């Protein structure tokens, strides 16, 4: 391949990029729909979320199991219409799924992603004011 464009190639490429249509000004908002297990991840303090990520990385499901108890201690979730005990059991179920499927690596990978979600939610909750 020749690193330098031939005579008609450079001009044609330059014209197509310059002649792009202007933006129409449409704003698109994307909202992620979470399932019940994913929405049950609690908004924890940042240091606790980092500890749960660390635990989930080395012992799949352990950080998720610990995070379940933060729900009983008052951590809020994206499931405000459900009782705390129900959200607690959803987190325990997620931890059990991670532990049982860790043998085939699926649970270990899920556990790491779960821990990363905990840290992301914790960093978002530090930026947002408390809602009554």
UniProtKB/TrEMBL annotation:
Highest taxon of source: Eukaryota
Locations listed in the record: Membrane
Key word Membrane present in the record?
yes
- Which parts of the sequence are annotated with region: Disordered? 1-21
Q: Give the UniProt entry's GO cellular component terms.
A: membrane
Q: Which parts of the chain span the membrane according to its record?
A: 46-75, 87-114
- Where is it mainly found? membrane
Keywords tagged on the record: Membrane, Transmembrane, Transmembrane helix
| This protein's record includes keyword Transferase | no
**What is its membrane topology?**
Multi-pass membrane protein
Q: Which InterPro entries match?
A: SPEC3/Stum
Q: Which Pfam families does the entry mention? A: Spec3
UniProt biased composition (Low complexity): 10-21
- Do you know which PANTHER family this protein is assigned to? PROTEIN STUM, PROTEIN STUM HOMOLOG
**Which protein is depicted?**
STUM protein
Record gene name: Stum
């Amino acid at each position: 391949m020749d690193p330098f464009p031939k005579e008609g190639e450079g001009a044609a490429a330059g014209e197509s990029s310059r002649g792009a249509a202007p933006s129409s000004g449409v704003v698109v908002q994307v909202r992620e729909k979470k399932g019940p297990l994913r929405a049950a991840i609690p908004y924890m303090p940042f240091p606790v979320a980092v500890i749960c990520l660390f635990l989930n990385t080395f012992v799949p499901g352990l950080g998720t199991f610990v995070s379940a108890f933060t729900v009983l201690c008052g951590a809020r979730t994206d499931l405000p219409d459900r009782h705390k005990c129900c959200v607690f059991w959803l987190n325990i179920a997620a931890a059990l799924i991670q532990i049982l499927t860790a043998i085939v690596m699926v649970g270990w990978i899920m556990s790491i992603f779960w821990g990363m979600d905990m840290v992301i939610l914790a960093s978002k909750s530090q930026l947002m004011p408390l809602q009554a």
